[in-house]
Amino acid sequence: MSFDPATLTRIANLARIDLPAAHLSALGDEMGAVLTLIDQLQAVETNGIVPLSHPLSVIGEMALPLRADVVSAENLRPSSFANAPQTENGLFLVPKVIE
Question: Which of 17, 47, 65, 75: disulfide with 12, CB 3.0–4.6 Å?
Answer without folding.
Answer: 17
